[in-house]
Design brief:
The protein has about 400 residues and is an alpha/beta fold. Helix content is about 30%, strand content about 20%. The strands form 2 sheets. Strands 1-3-2-4-9-8-5-6-7 form a 9-stranded parallel beta sheet, sandwiched between helices.
């Protein structure tokens, strides 16, 4: 498929050159879609950057359509994450005549990349673009998990029109539905209706408050490791560190924590697309938010080039198996610990008839705390959530 019809070339942003060291800047090693060079050869590319100039459905944050080029100005200045990095910048998807035209363009481009095992790195634009990213998986016959870094759930309500604050409802209601799980990391309770929290729990989705995560950032890693698609709303970061967003608030993750989450995402063998949204250059101060977004992308790339290839459908010799007997429960809980990375998974029982459909989801990323919980004869929440879905 010729994806060039959906993409607009970009001008290479200027960045400081410091003698010969400039040869190790990201801007010098990216394969870039320019008017002169055209679409890069993707035959040996691991990741591809796509800007999306779309914000028509943004809520109270118009101006995010200009973010992709602003983020590039800072990203291109950063040094290479790895001497073997193979990343392309495909340029921008311009806003279509209708919003659905933009979604169709991104869906088509992202799906083409996914089929080539290339990870799309999407720079928005408003966060409703996540819906188009989700649709890219539709024709792959793949049931997916979404993880959102956000201060709210973006569920909206039945009376609302579709927008950047209600994209999740659009995903849930889309048919055919191929969403297995949704995880929110970092919601702030004063921004979330209590009925929405109850609804998320009734859907067996995973939602975690900001304070709960900030008190133990290591517990974020298995949550991110379970995702196929990660969507990052920049307003999840506190206003003092990311002022370029009309909806930013005094509380949120700090910049270092945001970069750590992105690195966790890059490390995950399961994760196949990453998007960052709601960056508004009109509201930014000295490019601070765009610069932080560039660093978040840098950490995602760094994590990718440190992947261990230990998603547990590999050789069993690469894992230590632990079986924990549970009193008053029909199933033991089986844990696997990778000898490569030290990461943990737990296995949820699945009958043979369902294994083909849910093969990628019955091995649940977890931490040693879940193993310790099971040893105390308590069923880990993560195990129970998935078990209820698979029943």
């Amino acid at each position: 498929m010729d994806i060039s019809i959906y993409l607009e070339s970009i001008e290479i942003p200027e960045f400081d050159l410091e003698g010969l060291v400039h040869q190790r800047r990201i801007g010098n090693v990216l394969q870039i879609h320019t008017a002169k060079q055209g679409i890069p050869d993707l035959s040996h590319v691991d990741m591809a950057i796509i800007g999306v100039n779309e914000s028509r459905l943004s809520i109270n944050n118009f101006g995010t359509e200009n973010a992709p080029d602003e983020v590039r100005k800072f990203l291109y200045r950063l040094y290479m994450v790895n001497p073997k990095m193979k990343v392309a910048d495909l340029g921008n998807i311009k806003a279509g005549h209708d919003i659905d035209d933009t979604y169709f363009a991104l869906k088509t481009v992202a799906a083409s990349l996914l089929k080539k095992n290339i990870i799309p790195i999407i720079i928005g634009g408003s966060q409703d673009i996540t819906y188009a990213n989700y649709l890219a998986y539709e024709n792959m016959g793949q049931i997916v998990n979404i993880t959102s870094i956000d201060s709210s759930f973006d569920l909206g309500n039945a009376e609302e029109n579709f927008n950047s604050r209600s994209y999740l409802s659009k995903i849930i209601l889309h048919q055919p539905n191929f969403l297995f799980n949704f995880t929110n990391i970092g919601y702030q309770t004063y921004f979330v209706d209590q009925e929405a929290i109850s609804l998320m729990k009734n859907l067996f989705f995973d939602v975690y408050r900001l304070g709960q995560m900030r008190n133990n950032m290591e517990e974020v890693e298995p949550l991110v490791r379970n995702a196929d698609l990660l969507t990052f709303d920049i307003s999840a970061i506190r206003q003092a560190e990311a002022p370029g967003n009309t909806n930013a608030s005094p509380n949120g993750f700090d910049g270092e924590e945001a970069c750590k989450i992105a690195r966790y995402a890059g490390l995950s063998d399961k994760l196949t697309s990453f998007g960052i949204y709601e960056i508004n250059p009109k509201k930014d101060q000295n490019g601070q938010t765009a610069h932080l977004a560039a660093q978040i992308i840098w950490y995602f790339m760094e994590g990718f080039y440190q992947r261990k290839g230990d998603f547990p459908h590999k050789q069993k010799k690469d894992y230590i198996k632990y079986t924990v007997g549970m009193e008053d429960h029909e199933h033991d809980i089986v844990f696997y610990k990778s000898t490569k990375s030290g990461r943990w998974w737990m296995q949820v029982p699945l009958n043979a008839a369902m294994k083909g459909k849910y093969e990628r989801h019955f091995m649940v990323p977890c931490s040693i705390k879940d193993y310790e919980t099971a040893n105390n004869n308590d069923i880990p929440d993560r195990w129970w959530q998935v078990y209820q879905k698979l029943m």
